[in-house]
UniProtKB/TrEMBL annotation:
Coiled coil: none annotated. The chain crosses the membrane at residues 42-66, 142-164, 185-201. InterPro entries: LeuE-type. This is Threonine/homoserine/homoserine lactone efflux protein. Its main location: membrane. It comes from the Bacteria. Residues 1-18 form the signal peptide. The lineage of its organism: Bacteria, Pseudomonadati, Pseudomonadota, Alphaproteobacteria, Hyphomicrobiales. It is a multi-pass membrane protein. It comes from Xanthobacter agilis. Pfam families: LysE.
């Protein structure tokens, strides 16, 4: 059983991380601004499935998978950054065209989120180092790490849903003649997410 004080501290840390924009948030917000709530939520679902897979690897203590990600760290993140820039260019070029003309399918929106979640290998390395810091039962840590992973996933999902909903409200406020501005802001956010990926070192 994790002491309540440690669990509360962990939840606060998770909330702080969920409120910090990164590549995943950039994709969710950019998609919601361009295509609306449904596409944003589907993208958030894809992001969080990827996150849960990474948390499962970290919680299971699969060091060889973490090591494999580490060896290909730069290749994976460069690919993810290039993908985000490609999405940004598409959104910039179609700015003001209206969501119905180019909105991604449910599978495509989900797939985007999943792809970008896996395109940021630093999250897996972070989870592998972050979760054990809150473990109090060092003799049998797996159960506590599993609980922490579930809590982290729940907070991350709630945070991503809130980001998607907020972006959708901003999109509604910028409808009509401001739609093109919203689309270009969306493209800029995606480029920002790519920049964060490129800036992510092995620190």
């Amino acid at each position: 059983m994790i002491p309540l004080e440690s669990l509360a501290l962990f939840v606060l840390a998770c909330l702080a991380l969920a409120a910090t924009p990164g590549p995943n948030v950039a994709l969710i917000v950019g998609t919601s601004l361009r295509y609306g709530r449904r596409a944003g939520l589907l993208t958030a679902a894809g992001v969080n499935v990827g996150l849960i897979a990474q948390l499962a690897v970290a919680a299971a203590g699969l060091a060889y998978l973490v090591e494999a990600f580490s060896h290909h760290f730069d290749l994976v993140r460069y690919g993810g950054a290039a993908y985000l820039v490609w999405l940004a260019v598409r959104q910039w070029r179609s700015a003001g065209a209206g969501p119905a003309t180019s909105a991604p399918s449910a599978h495509a929106a989900f797939g985007r989120g999943l792809a970008v979640a896996f395109a940021n290998p630093k999250t897996l390395l972070f989870h592998a180092a972050f979760l054990p810091q809150f473990v109090t039962d060092t003799a049998n840590p797996l159960a506590q790490i599993a609980v922490l992973a579930v809590v982290f996933a729940a907070v991350a999902l709630a945070g991503d849903v809130l980001w998607a909903m907020a972006a959708d409200r901003a999109r509604a406020a910028l409808s009509g003649r401001f739609a093109q501005i919203a689309d270009r802001v969306s493209a800029g956010i995606l480029v920002g997410g790519a920049a964060v990926l490129l800036a992510a070192g092995r620190r």
